[in-house]
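FAQ: What does the model actually see?

It sees only this:
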Amino acid sequence: GKEKVKIWRRSFDIAPPAMKDDHPYKNHVSSNIPEGKMLSSESLKDTFDRVIPYFKKYVEKKIKENVMISAHGNSFRSLCKYLFNIDDQEISKLEIPTGNPLILKFDKNIKLLDAKYLDKERSKDLIIFN
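And it is asked to produce this:
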């Protein structure tokens, strides 16, 4: 039901049931992914564990420049969890509107100072960051 799907979509570490091997989309989606690298299911924590090391290695050092990040919803939720220091339970409350750029302002030490949506009429409440 709706509540179970909401738990899978919004919780931090609860993944939906694994995709079965005979699912019609499984081979189509994973055909170019090396053996053993494709998860059968994924929680936000799994996404976080991929996104944040990449962000730290390739993006964070460029924050002093103008950087634009375009991402899938869960990738962006992972990044917001990290940048806003959102705990595992509070992340379920984060709603990100589609197609409304989030402008982030950092100080010279890459500390997040401010966050606001470009289109205020379509913005969602941001979880206050620490």
